[in-house]
Amino acid sequence: MGVIVVNDRSVNLLENYDIEVLRTWKGRGAILCETKQGILILKEYGGHKEKAAFQDALLSMVRARGFQNVECILKNKEQELLTQDQDGTLYVLKTYFEGRECNVRDMEECRQAVRTLAKLHLASQVEGALPGAYTPRYAHVEFEKHNRELRKVRKYLKDRSQKTDFEIFLMKNYDYFFNLALQVTEELRFYQGTGEKQFICHGDYQYHNILLCGEEMNLVNFEKCTMDSPVRDLYLFMRKLLEKSGWSQGIGFDLMDVYDKVRPMDGTEYRQLYYRLAYPEKFWKIVNFYYNSGKAWIPGKNLEKLMKVTEQEKDKQAFLEKFKAQYALA
């Protein structure tokens, strides 16, 4: 097995693989190992075994279609994707890219990340059944779940006698965002077509899963991959940048244009993107975090985040109005 420098019982799991380990060291929540096949990463796997098969099928499919900028899951000696330790914990061994995370403050890197995403989607359209394939996810179904949670929290707040400054401010703005959430969900349900093209999305397309390695961008951590409209990934990446920039129209339309030049979107996808951006997800996230945390002490950061959401709402609606006009969405 070679020299092992990490005193960690999970390192012993590497004996289940047909690899020659030269050395190992600890990474962030993982074990890195230098092998004759290059550097690999051993991580705990938190999902279901079926999801690992789906993830592996996606990665194999996009590589076979010419998109090589993705990690690869290595099978063990038993030809299984996951390896179990003595406690029953599952681990996965993957190829590793030496690089740094995408810098969201660098617009050229953000453009490159969007171009890379469009190339991934060109290779990830589903044309047949994949092992462990999941049923398609629809945004309006997720929004309906969020709305049920928002309704429950509103009742909780109304019944609460003594309210903190955060809760008072939250109640003052609750109806606006709650009614907006209901309206967006209802409109999207009306437009959601069952005949939409289905793609495998990364599912968590954020800067820390986009690694710049020299001139190339490589994508990692596909554990949340799912069947959905490709704009799921584009929306997630865009929303973070738009929130950071105060819903800059220049940034938003620039990124959509960059994506469209590599993989042109159709009218259905533009509408999907519009409604995903229109849904008050940041508000729901703040509310959800508040409700599921201890109420005895509410961090001041929560109030800051909520105030920022309300302050940005005018600019967000201006962005959405231009979006609707530019792409002729009735």
Written overview of the protein:
- The protein is α+β, with helices and mostly antiparallel strands and 330 residues long.
- Helices cover 48% and strands 14% of the residues.
- The protein is built from nine helices and eleven strands.
- The chain has helices at residues 49-64, 107-122, 139-159, 165-191, 231-244, 249-262, 267-278, 281-291, 300-326; strands at 21-27, 30-35, 38-44, 73-74, 83-84, 90-95, 100-101, 199-201, 210-213, 216-219, 226-228.
- The strands form three sheets. Strands 1, 2, 3, 4, 5 and 6 form a six-stranded antiparallel β-sheet that branches. A three-stranded antiparallel β-sheet has the order 7-9-10, covered by helices on one side. The protein has a two-stranded antiparallel sheet with strand order 8-11.
- A hairpin with a 2-residue loop joins strand 1 (21-27) and strand 2 (30-35).
- Helix 8 packs antiparallel against helix 9.
- Mean pLDDT is 90; it is low at 1-7.
Element pattern in H and E: EEEHEEEEHHHEEEEHHHHH
Largest sheet: 6 strands, antiparallel
Helix-strand makeup class: alpha+beta
Helix content: 40-55%
Distance between the termini: 64 Å
Please compute the radius of gyration using only Cα atoms: 22 Å
Total number of helical segments? 9
Average pLDDT, rounded to a whole number, is: 90
